[in-house]
Structure formats: structure tokens, C-alpha cells
Amino acid sequence: MRSSIFTCFIAAFLALTFLSGCAVIPFEKTSEYTKDLYRRIQYKLEGDHRVLNIFYATTRAKEDDRLTPGSFNSTLGKGISYGTLDAKIDPSLKIGAITPTQLTKAGLIDVKNMTTLDDAEFLKKLSDAVAASPHNSLMVMVFGYEQNFEDAAINAAFFSYLLDINTPVLLFDWPGDQPPSVPGYAKAQSYAISSGPHLGELLTKIVHQIKPNKLWITAHSMGCQVVCDAFDDMYKNPALADADAEIDHVILAAPDVGQNEFDEKFKNELAAMSKKLTAYVSSDDQALLMSGVINQEERLGRIKDSKEHKQLEELKGLLYVKSLGSDKIAVIDVTPINNSTFRHGYYLESPEFYDDFYLRIFDKGPNVNRRLYLIKFKDNIDYWVLNSGK
What are 291-299's contacts with CB under 8 Å, separation 24+? Predict the structure, then answer.
């Protein structure tokens, strides 16, 4: 009996001690925690649909005085046209295998209420939107080959809605909707290169006049070529090529850019103007396989397939530059989760991609994402593989 009473006393004492300890656990105050969060994306309601407002800048020529997505054609204009548009979105929209045409036909996304703005009006409205955002941020998006204006706008709306962070979005559009042929691909590539300086000019205005605290640039496929040439042009500006990095993060998905061109033109600009670069690559990208054949040069976004990731030494030469440091550049191999169309559109179709992209926008360490598995090799430079976790 005495033993039983003593046991109960000890149990009660330990319980009280534990509860007392819990009372002094230093929980973070809600206000301190939430101030660092990016709130959910802002939208208006229209019936059962949600409406997002997106800024656009395009290098396309305009056909006539009408203002619809079809007003911008597939040729290069003399400069940049600016404006805003609304994207009407069915809230049941989910990440999956999609094309912009399928989304519009199904009534899941519709582009409407386009406006046109002159240079000063555009910068003023964009500046106001950045200032009103929780973290004074801006995300610039550039899409790739075979995308007309409406396709690019739908992709930007789709990506923004499903990424779901409260930041203004600027679509930089260019005439990538050329025929699916070798001559059509070559014309698109020439338009991408020609559009680069225009994007560079716009980014320079954003950096100097709007001055967002967070400036992210994400590009996909041949849109990465536009970004490369934008950086090459900006690097000629002494005010941008200084020691201060004006851009927080450049994220390239399935980059349709030559490996040699990256080494020769982009790496120095990156070091001068961007704090971080992330490149998503895969070994089974069929679109980049064909691009490599056409260009007679391997593409940045396609790696050679090899078991046990024996291609790591090759990847080190592909992207990592010792002078930049391993914390500046991250390479994410998405081969294990790449079940997208032509093994190329994972940046729109893969939930795992959105997960990882979201963490990078928050500037969290890659180890936070438990879908990532780290393999180290001899120069202590990290190469990450993204898995589904299934």
C-alpha cells in the first residue's frame, strides 16, 4: 500500500514538473510569426469564380485598336506594350497535365478586362501594387516557345493562383508562338534573343524606380533565353554590375539555353546582379532533346541519364562555378517526379515542383524540403534530387 502511494506521489510530481516546464516554453508570439508569412493571393469574386489582376509587358506587335488577347500577333513590335489584365479562375482548378487551350475550353480560366498603359502609368500602377504587398515584392514571369499572348497570360494566372502567395505578378511576354518546325523554332529563338534587351531595360527601371524589397524572376523553357539576354544587356550598365545584387532570385525551369552560352554569357551577370540562381533540370526532357539536335549543342535543362547519378561530375561543370560559391547556385534534378507532357512541362504540372518553388521564394534552406535528397561530391558542392516521397 505504502509503495503504491509513493508511486502515485512520484507520478504526480513528475506531471506537475512537466506542466511547469511547458508553461515556460518560449512559444513565438503570433504577431512575430505571421509577419514573415506571405499571405494568400489576393482576388476578387465574380459569381463562383475568382479574379486575379496581372500586369503584362509584351514585345509583340499589335494588330489594331482592339484590346483582346488576340490583338497581339506573333511578330516582334518596335518596343514594349504595357497594361493589365484580369484572369477569371474556377476555384476547383488543380495542378495537373494542362494546356492553356484546354483550360479556356473547359471554362476554368478566362482572360478579360485588358487595359493598355503608357510607360509612366504602368510604372506608377506597378509601384503602387508593390508598395501595397505584404513584403514589398514582385514576381516576373517569362514563358517559352509556341505560347501566344493568351497562352502566356493563362499560364501566368495558373501558376500564380496555384503557387498562392500575395505578390504582384508581371508577365513579360514575347512572340514565341511560331510554327512547330525547325524554321519556326529558329524564328522563335531569334525573337527570344531580340526580346532580351527589352526585358533588361524594364528590369532596370523596376530596380531603380520601383525598388522592390524582393524581386524574383522565374523563366521556363525558351523564356530562359530571354532572361539570359536580359542579364547580358543589364550587365553593360555600371550601376547594375556593381557589388550589390539587385535581384533576389532567378529560377530557371527546363532552361532551353545552350550550356556553352550559359558559361560564356550568363554566369558573370548572375554573380553581379542576382543573390541566388536555381536551375531545375532533368534527364528525360524530350523537348530539350530535340532542341539539342536542332542547335547542335546540349541544353542547360537536360542532363545525361545515368544510374546512381554518376553524371554529378558533368553537372558540376554545367552549372557550378567555384567563384560563385555553392550557396549561390542550386541544381535540382526533377527526373524522379517528371511525368509531365513531353517530360518538359513539369513547371506547370508537378505538385512537387510547386512545393520546392514555394520554399525558395521564402528563401528557406533546401534541407527544409524533405522531398529533396542531397548527394555530395568531392568539392563539397551540393547536388539535389527531387523525389515524390511516395
Answer: 291/185, 291/256, 294/182, 294/185, 294/186, 295/258, 297/258, 297/259, 297/260, 297/261, 298/258, 298/259, 299/255, 299/256, 299/257, 299/258, 299/259
Residue type, 354: Y
Residue pointed to by grid coordinates 505504502: 2
pTM of this structure? 0.81
CA distance 245 to 70: 37
**Tell me: the pLDDT tens digits for 341-377?**
777 878 888 888 888 888 888 776 655 554 555 444 4
d(CA 247, CA 354): 21
Residues with Cβ within 8 Å of residue 297, at least 6 apart in sequence: 258, 259, 260, 261
Distance (Å, rounded) from C-alpha 272 to C-alpha 13? 61
- CA-to-CA distance for 84 and 98, rounded, in angstroms? 24
Looking at residue 322, its pLDDT comes to 36
Predicted confidence (pLDDT) per residue in 159-218, tens digit: 999 888 899 999 999 999 999 999 999 999 999 999 999 999 999 999 999 999 999 999
Question: Could you tell me the residue ranges of all domains in the chain?
Answer: 43-386
Cα 256 to the center of its chain, rounded Å: 15
Per-residue burial over 318-328, b = 16 or more CB atoms within 10 Å of its CB, e = otherwise: bbbbeebeeeb
Mention every residue, 6+ apart, whose C-beta is less than 8 A from residue 76.
Answer: 59, 60, 61, 174, 175, 191, 194, 195
Output the nine-digit C-alpha cell for 240: 547594375
Which residues are 253's β-sheet partners? Answer: 220, 280
Summarize the confidence of residues 68-97 as an average pLDDT. Answer: 90
Question: Stretch 21-49: mean pLDDT, rounded?
Answer: 57
The Cβ of residue 209 has, within 10 Å, a number of other Cβ atoms equal to 11
The grid cell for 255 is: 532552361
Residue predicted with more confidence, 311 or 327: 327
The residues near 246 (Cβ < 8 Å, ≥ 6 apart) are 207, 215, 240, 273, 274
User: What 8-state DSSP symbol labels residue 206?
Assistant: I
Architecture field, domain 43-386: 3-Layer(aba) Sandwich (3.40)
